[in-house]
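note to self: dont lose this again. the chain is below, predicted strucutre after it. 78 aa total, dont forget to put it in the shared folder this time
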Amino acid sequence: MTTVLSAAPTPQPPTGPAGNRVMPLALVLLTALLVASWTGFIVWISTHQLADAILRAGVAFAGTVGLCLAVWAAYRQR
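---
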């Protein structure tokens, strides 16, 4: 007599309204933080003005988020 064991079900990605948006949004924020931190660091090193570095880092963060979301929206419409 042979006993057949069923395999464990494979994990499925999360479903629902937010299931397929978590990872892309996390990547967008991670990319934007990386760009903003390097921009702020480079500006601070070159000008030695903290306020200017913070402002340019904020602009870089906003620009990166906008660009990433535009690319993501274009990719989803494809």
